[in-house]
Specification:
Layout: E1 15-16, E2 22-24, E3 27-28, H1 29-36, E4 40-44, H2 45-58, E5 65-70, H3 77-85, E6 89-92, H4 95-103, E7 111-113, H5 120-128, E8 133-136, H6 139-151, E9 156-163, E10 166-168, E11 173-175, E12 185-186, H7 190-199, E13 204-210, H8 221-241, E14 247-249, H9 267-285, E15 291-294, H10 298-301, E16 305-316, E17 322-326, H11 335-339, E18 345-347, E19 356-362, E20 371-379, E21 386-390, E22 410-415, E23 418-423, H12 428-432
The structure holds ligand LLP.
């Protein structure tokens, strides 16, 4: 079975060069840090395009596949443009993501709007900018959508998001009749929603069903079960309402390799399971083969991204841990403090001393929980060394904050020994640019 890029710990162009420094996209990491400073997000264009190709090859066996990149994992103009060039559409979840994807020049017809509490303004923006599909999540949204569509004299193309009763916790999953989830229609509510769309909402056109079962998934059986439920429901709705739904959206979720002990399946393995399950379910329930939508985020963008930090102070707790602090942390990567997520890192510059020391990488933010990596063996990290943390392309910049009023970091795109800024570092002026002092205080 072919390997795919989501199974790698490091970007595919990463190597140590003759100087003993790490190099990514042909750019010496020490040079990048001299030019741009730290913390610095780096995206390797080759790794990103490579995984897109993996996905396209893996799913080529099924002719009606629509790949939608989940923008929540990373949403910038340049990365959206690359994904659009690779033929991907986009799963978006806010007005901000819709606007960014639109401004990147992507085909809005290949955009799908998700979310459990989309506002009137966001729905109106989606309709105005020609978003191809809206995945309706609840009864209020159906009402709002129909109202907007009516006032614009348009028909809006929708899917209904359902809660299929499958929940993944990375290495285990549960299947229940109902699920305690804020997303989508419970299966017991689905018929009422379909009935409303067919009989009351004149300006909505229903194309299919949507579900998403989790993130950082390593199992394949869950996709099989999810697809079976979606196809079964489509067959059942046809029987009850005489409606031929021809789209199924199975969401995203494929995992990546954050540490040496993570073994995510490849895109090829996942595609085989998905297509095989789909074909079996189509036969079993006797429906026409539908268009398949997938919405991967993490598995597309994570491995292409690394974050570079400069090491500063350190502290040896007597008879305890050694803490080594970097110039970023929970504001540029909230995942370790939010989810106890684990990361792998290396010292990027050459080191004469190569005996390993186990240290804990602490962030710079005023919170004890701001620890990026607990207990990692590195060659004697000291002040001024550059730390390269791997697999930070997904859910790092997109979840970044200005905690402690620290400016958000810069992002560069590297390829063929060239580097280009794709997100500027925020300035001190940017930080106060939205603040207002009322006149009466002056
Ligand atoms: N589609 C829907 C409807 C989703 O809710 C999500 C993720 C995706 C697609 C993309 O899933 P992915 O392929 O990236 O696993 N902040 C968390 C992850 C939250 C994912 C939320 N939904 C983290 O950093 O792990």
């Amino acid at each position: 079975m072919n390997e795919s890029t989501n199974q790698f710990l490091r970007p595919i162009t990463l190597r140590r060069n003759d100087k003993g420094n790490l190099e990514i996209g042909g750019c010496d990491v020490v040079g990048l840090v001299q030019q741009y400073g730290t913390p610095l997000y780096v995206i390797d264009e080759k790794t990103l395009r490579n995984i897109c190709v993996d996905y396209k090859k893996a799913f080529a066996k099924y002719d009606k596949v629509n790949m939608m990149f989940a923008s929540k994992s990373l949403c910038t103009l340049a990365t959206s443009l690359i994904l659009a060039q690779e033929g991907f559409g986009f799963d978006v979840v806010s007005g901000g993501e819709i606007y960014t994807v639109y401004k990147s020049g992507a085909d809005m017809n290949k955009v799908l709007f998700n979310g459990n509490n989309k506002s009137y303004d966001e729905l109106a923006l989606a309709i105005e900018l020609g978003v191809g599909r809206i995945s309706a999540d609840n009864f209020l949204e159906l009402d709002l959508l129909n109202e907007i569509a009516k006032s614009e004299n348009k028909t809006v193309d929708i899917l209904l998001r359902i809660t299929p009763g499958i929940e993944c916790h990375t290495h285990e999953y549960i299947q229940t009749g109902h699920l305690d989830s804020k997303f989508g229609f419970d299966l017991t509510q689905l018929d009422e929603a379909v009935d409303l769309v067919l009989n009351s909402y004149t300006n909505l056109k229903l194309h299919g069903l949507h579900a998403h079962i989790g993130s950082q998934i390593f199992e394949t059986q869950v996709y099989h079960d999810e697809i079976e439920i979606l196809v079964k429901e489509i067959a059942r709705l046809d029987e009850k309402f005489g409606i031929k739904l021809d789209e199924i959206n199975i969401g995203g979720g494929l995992g990546v390799k954050y540490t040496e002990t993570d073994y995510p399946p490849s895109t090829y393995e996942i595609a085989d399971v998905i297509i095989d399950s789909l074909q079996k379910s189509i036969k079993k329930y006797g429906i026409e083969s539908p268009s398949l939508f997938i919405e991967p985020g993490r598995s597309i963008i994570s491995t292409s991204g690394v974050t570079l930090y400069t090491i500063g102070s350190s502290k040896q707790v007597p008879k305890g841990r050694k803490y080594v602090a970097v110039d970023g942390g929970m504001a540029d990567n909230p995942r370790p403090s939010m989810y106890q997520a684990k990361y792998f890192a290396e010292i990027a510059n050459s080191k004469e001393e190569d005996t390993l020391q186990t240290v804990t990488i602490a962030g710079r933010f005023c919170e004890s929980g701001d620890i990026l990596i607990k207990d990692i063996a590195l060659p004697q990290p000291s002040e001024g060394d550059i730390l390269c943390v791997y697999n930070t392309g997904a859910y790092n910049y997109s979840m970044a904050s200005n905690y402690n009023r620290v400016q958000k970091s810069q992002m560069v795109l590297v390829n063929n020994s060239k580097s280009d800024i794709i997100v500027n570092r925020e300035t001190l002026e940017d930080l106060i640019s939205h603040d207002v002092i009322p006149d009466r205080l002056k």
